[in-house]
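User: Sequence in, structure out. Go.
Assistant: Echoing your sequence, followed by the structure tokens.
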Amino acid sequence: MSSVFVYTRVVTLQWFSWYATKKMHEDMISRVLNAPINLYFDTTPTGRILNKFSKDLSAIETMLVYLTGTFYVSLYSTISILVISIFVVWWIIFFVPIIVYLVYRVFKRSIAGVKDVTRVESVSKSPLLSFLGETISGASTIRSYDKVDGFISRNMELLNNNILASMWCESIPLWFAIRIDIISVFMMLIVSLICVIYRNSGHAVVLSLLLTYVMTLQQFVSSIIRNLMQIEARMVNVDRCLKVLDIPQENTAGKMELERFKRLNPEWPDHGEIIFDNVILKYRPTTEIVLNNLSFDVAAGEKIGVVGRTGAGKSTICLSLSRIVEIVSGSIKIDGINIREVELNYLRSRITVIPQDPTMFTGTLRFNLDPENQVSDDRIYQVLESAQ
């Protein structure tokens, strides 16, 4: 019967853990993929994103469920032993509040440090992952400029910071375990004195049973507090993952329903006329204005060139057309329709931008030319031949 209960407990906890982690991962992916480039990706290091999707999610899926299960097993066992002990020697109940108070004081002093150190350890891993990724991608440049030693030194510095935080994460539970053992010795002393006092009462078997239970109780109490401390530490990982759900999102909805817009404008944009009317644009609310009251017209079929110094806002004009960066005020119209009224995904599907830096995605050439598989192979070959 015990095996059935254990099996049910393990399966139930694992299922809830799998479901919760899966839902958390799906929500995090959705929030990250729909985050504005200028408000999130331009300000968030890659290592921080990878850290949340790797270490933090892994801690939730693997460690949190194990710690929760062990905590409840130890808690129920402790309650059972206390009830039996009080039944054997009723006045031992007066010592329980003292033990609870001592354990609580030690726990309160250590838990704040555990949470802070766990947060520091998680934060220190992000720059390390970012630095490793940047070093690998720029390895040839680093070698060509003979900066290998400098990058190794920087890597060792970041690694030492992370190892130091990890060491403190392991040290605080050990500090706590020593204090719990001291309290356990005090508890065993009380029980031993009780056994000595009642040694001639004719209840030697009962007293020996009490002593055995209390020795077991010490292990369960220590397990409860350690697991509770680790659960609190793992909640730091949960908090970091939940912060991903607060990432600002792109405003994908248009002022007009998409199907209605398609019925009214089935071929939009069919001419290509572009009108910028007093456009003001910032990359972020705290940064300077990049486009300040910009107004110009591009006639349908007209080819123009935008000339300006670096940072003047030439590329920003293309970003504003596809609403990669939203304008602060003014309007941008394509064929007489304000692009803010168009559903975002549909707008981007109707505009083609050839970037300054060509990028190839992993996969076939056909996938890079037609990722949505909307045209035939003959059309792909025709385009390739015309580009030679």
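User: And one key feature?
Assistant: The first strand starts at residue 274 and ends at 282.
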